[in-house]
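Two records follow; treat each independently.
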Amino acid sequence: EILQVLQMQMQSGVLTVSQGKTEVVVVFRGGLIDVAQSRGVSDEFRLGRYLVEEGLVAKDQLEQAAETARAEKARIGDTLVAKGIIQEADLRRALIRQSSELIYEILRWPRPRFSFRKQGATEGQPPPSNTPELGLPVASLVMEGFQRVDEWRLFEEHIDFEGVLYQNAAAIEKLGPDRLDKGEKRILELVDGERPVREIVRMSHASSFDACKTLYQFLEARIVRRRTA
């Protein structure tokens, strides 16, 4: 409701959403979301994950760029562009994914706290002049976010995150290797009959939502099965 009110009133400023030690800062401009950034959230929301996942940056390049960015007190995305490793369009696409997924995440929080500093208000400070201007509409983000909330409930009902899964060789052979994309193959490879689901999700280098959705689909299709004691 707060996000939608800020959009309808075409507000500009900084919305801070916190839960415990976790915080997401959302920059609004004329009712649109320019960027969302975070402190204390899972590593899956770091910008580098999106760039590595798309094959735009190797892990060693990312680590070197992170060191340079820290030394120069610059943002890692700007450093990667300056070095010619990625293009501006690549950075923008990664920032859109990062900001969108952070909005989806805060919609899952049961008891968040909110504060809003209106741009130009006496007590507030305007966003930095170099803030990315993504111009994301709130309505579509909220719609997608609530759909994900419903899917998360489904995953949590059917997936034991401390449980262990194993591959169903017969079902995999019947499916055929070309039916799975790269991310699905990566997650299937991690199902070894020993790792708990929580570890598979962590090692997948995908968002926890995407990893859980894939595992849920595998369970429904009997591509993987639950190991019983």
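The next record belongs to a different protein.
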Amino acid sequence: LADGFIWGRGALDDKFNLNVQLEAIERLLKSGYKPKRTLYIGSGHDEEVGGTGAQAIAARLAQRGVRLEFVLDEGMAVVQGMMPGTSKPVALIGLAEKGSVTVEIAVRSPGGHSSMPPTQTAAGILAAALVRLEQHQMPARLSGAPRLMFEHLAPEMPFGLRLVLTNLWLLEPVLRWQLAQKPSTHAMLRTTTAITMLEGGPKENVLPQRARAVVNFRILPGDTVASVVEHVRKTVADDRVDVQIAGSAGVEPSATSSAESPAFLRIAQSIRQSFPDALVAPSLMIGASDARNYAAVADNAYRFMPILLLPDDLARFHGTDERIAIADYARVVAFYEHFIRQNDEAR
């Protein structure tokens, strides 16, 4: 604790969420509160590296025959200064999350000395394939949760942007072009292509016998792991290039939860209780969470953290000077207290 903040790894992602949920429940119990409904807290230990904890919890719930009305997990937040067209805080509730698959692209050749190179080396063939992948990405579209987000926010936008958002049947290409200018909003429009690893020859005068790249795709709902791999093979279009899924089989995009369910409306109401000035809208989470692992026991899973984030805060996730203001921490505790009571009253 220093300077009005709680500092340390996990202060934003995501130890604070575990702490505030437990603190909210302790406060409720100390006040004599007795829940009418069963509330489960599922705290997985390895969300960052696969979510086997959440998978085990969900499997046990299914074994017991438990059917959850909804799941509320970490994810989106209340952001300010990041949404074009408004200076107000915007609370984004994730209805869905993207899937992912990592593809290995490799080229083999006889190798040899660099003084006698062929017309194309393994590295050159690989480089050309990667250029084609970046130049011909998977199609962009504004659908599902991102489209719902803009439809919810449209009435609060300035006239010019409101005109676009209320006439997407005609002006969607204009909005897509604007969103494509920033990586954070571009990711809402398509399955993204990210070349993340490269390997080649061992020495400056040795032709590589094998050149290899790793490409990570974050899959938009509506696309699939299979359609991504097919896209890679068709785009590379070179028999000398081997395309394989690397590591695990990949993760399909989640289903899209309802933005009209009683649970969504209760989340929105609790947000307005804690953030009276905030606009509330559904959204797409471009990262991953444990929520996807509960699909077998809940039709609706929502991804939201009741914290206010400013542009400078984004670099703090998994980064330097991770922190949360003590006042914000207390507000999050109050959010969960209110939300738990609200769900009991809706029984």
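Discussion point: Residues 326-345 form the longest helix (20 residues). How would you locate this feature using only the token line?
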